[in-house]
Amino acid sequence: MSRPGVVVGVSGGVDSSVAALLLVQQGLDVSGLFMQNWADDGSGHCRAEDDRRDAVAVCGRLGIAFHFRDFSAEYWQGVFAHFLAEYAAGRTPNPDVLCNREVKFKHFLDAARELGAGRIATGHYARVAQSGGRWRLLRGADRGKDQSYFLHQLGQEQLAATLFPIGHLEKSQLRRMAQEAGLPTHAKKDSTGICFIGERDFRQFLGQYLPAREGDIRDPDGRPIGRHPGVFYFTLGQREGLNIGGVRGRSAAPWYVVGKDVAANVLYVDQGHDSPWLQSSRLQTESMHWIAGAAPAARFRCTAQTRYRQPDEPCAVTVRDDGTLQVDFDRPQRAVTPGQSLVLYDGPECLGGAVIAATDAPLEQRASRPVSLERQA
Fold it and tell me: How does DSSP assign 77-126, residue by residue?
């Protein structure tokens, strides 16, 4: 039996199904590989077995070989342990970014090479191009589905070995193609949220690993507003789950999380979606990952996203000597959250990204351990 030229990561969803379909239609030597990244914890919320059956059915329909690998131990060590540590520190991590870097484009790529494949393919909405002697990561054509934000930690080696067959498609086109090809996943609902949590309650899940500790909810001036079940259950800009009723002397406007003091176990809130306590104009990152291998310049302008599906925000970037960045936005940003990812773009090209370390939001600068964010001369 000939070895596969391309191994497709088949997840049991419609996106990876069509990715495999397109490669088969191109006449390539294709096989599918299903990655199990989370061990069934007995909660009944793990869909891995259902997804695996769908992936097997898709491979059967396309007439390609099916492979299985259990990466749950690697996922725990490379993604989930970091996820818990970040929440315990009061930050809000992005496990999808780490999953791509540590599992899908590391262990999966290694497994594909062990099978003799020269390349891998996934159902991500992104594109790869080569120019000027380097590989470039580009946004997917469907801007509403573009996933380059989650792929910003990839480098030249991974991009050289990766195909994104559906990156040029709109989602509506993709579902139509799946239906016309008779793929059993053509009408399957897209998965949302964090894979290992599934449909269960986030607090209930996190509470299994980070025991709840109640504390005060206060306004930015320190006045008591209510009680919270644990500061790490909340993120900046969050409205849901605060359970703040009528507060004497305050309007009926909704309350939003504007800050956290993990050491004191205090959650800070304010009223109004665009509260000034949520605004920041500058941020500092941890060490930056450049897809090209190096920064385009020591100082330059580009656009940025501080969260998925955010509109492009113009900014000025300063590369520090230690590899971190200072980013100054043209206009204030709402709820920029340490622990999340800053991702930079030059038009459709993703330049890379880094974890947000600190911002100049009012409460963060008032904290006892502020990070210097002076504007560079």
Answer: IIIIHHHHHHHHTT----HHHHHIIIIIIIIHHHHHHHTT-SEEE---SE
d(CA 187, CA 183) in angstroms, rounded, equals: 9
> Does the annotation count 195 as an active-site position?
yes
Per DSSP, the chain holds a count of helices (H) and strands (E) of 10, 18
**pLDDT the model gives residue 371:** 46
Distance separating alpha carbons of residues 303 and 320, to the nearest angstrom: 18
Catalytic residue among 46, 99, 315, 350: 99
Contact at 8 Å (CB) between 37 and 60? Answer: no
How does 56-89 read in b/e, with b if 16+ C-beta sit within 10 Å? bbbbebbebbbbebebbebbbebbbeebeebbee
Q: Max alpha carbon distance in the chain (Å)?
A: 76
Residues 17, 10: Cα–Cα separation, whole Å? 7
Choose the catalytic residue: 59, 195, 315, 350.
195
User: Which DSSP category does 202 fall into?
Assistant: H
- Give residue-wise pLDDT tens across range 329-369: 999 999 999 999 999 999 999 999 999 999 999 998 876 44
